[in-house]
Amino acid sequence: MTLPFLTTAVTKTYGISIPVIAGGLMWLSDADYVSAAARAGIMSFITAASFPEPDALRAEIRKCRSLCDGAAFGVNVSMLPKLVPGEKTADVFRLIADEGVQFVETSGRNPEEYMPILKDAGIMVLHKVPSVRYAVKAQSVGVDMVAIVGAECGGHPGMDMIGTMVNAATAAERLTIPYLIGGGIGHGSQIIAALSMGASGVVMGTRFLVAKELNAHADYKARMMEATERDTQLIMHSVRNTVRALANETTATVAKMEQDNPGVTISDLLPHISGQHGRAAYATGDTSRGVLSAGHALAFVDKVEPMAQIVDRLTQEANAALARLSALQSIAPYQESA
Ligand SMILES: Cc1cc2nc3c(=O)[nH]c(=O)nc-3n(C[C@H](O)[C@H](O)[C@H](O)COP(=O)(O)O)c2cc1C
């Protein structure tokens, strides 16, 4: 289903039917998932960090292209502070450019030093930030669009912890480039709300964790469906690397370590937060351990469905929200009583 009346800078840039992007998901957004999103009419990104070997990333990009039926897709490059030594970001961008990928989603830190590589290759840069102030900075270094994710988001909400509603409205005042809003978005009515505040689209992650094409164990998806917006926990704020994740044994342990020892370091936490535990949970379905990023949009995660069906539901919900708004417009204008 297409919504031609929802034409925005985001739909035009990516050639998609509704202004929704599925943000990169560490260990999860592979060629199967990203191409399913593309075929469903939205934009998505392979997470480069999930394929640390250059040949593996190259192969995943090629596989994705072959599955996309000509639809656009991109690569997510998270430039978060490295937990292990070795900086390969520039090489990753060169590989992406070599493969002719046109779109990237960057996150984690200011992409300024990589902008020459990206712009020389004609790559369109969407930079994702956790706060409007970083969006203003990203705009000043020449990114094409920004995505601002609020405190409700799964993954990294940053340090400011400003909510999505405030980000959506303040961004309109402070930015001149197109922006997307994310964090807690999982219902079509929220797409309309974001557009009405000035956004050109939304970014979602948590809502898609039950997509049929997502390569994760059925028990993991079952836990996502069972969990509600009350089942996440914020950890690692004390080490300036805040994460919102499914509340489980790992988040409880990490939160206690942070509480008991204000001087705790990221290295102290590493045995618990290592990405390998999360990866294992996706493979085995044992969600009791690992930092399993998930946000308040768990509220909307109710069944395992193909990506196309989730997008269809979002579209119908967006339509219903628009109908509610136009019904309001037909009511006589408000007049103060004498
Ligand atoms: C399981 C999971 C893994 C994620 N991994 C990444 C990542 O590797 N890189 C990144 O930039 N964002 C990552 N994110 C953030 C999403 O791309 C997206 O910005 C976020 O989920 C939007 O908020 P929402 O979860 O409230 O929809 C992840 C989110 C989740 C839920």
From TrEMBL:
Transmembrane segments: none annotated. InterPro entries: Aldolase_TIM, NMO. Keywords: Flavoprotein, FMN, Monooxygenase, Oxidoreductase. It comes from the Bacteria. Gene3D superfamilies: Aldolase class I. The keyword Oxidoreductase applies. GO terms for molecular function: nitronate monooxygenase activity. This is Nitronate monooxygenase. It comes from Parasedimentitalea maritima.
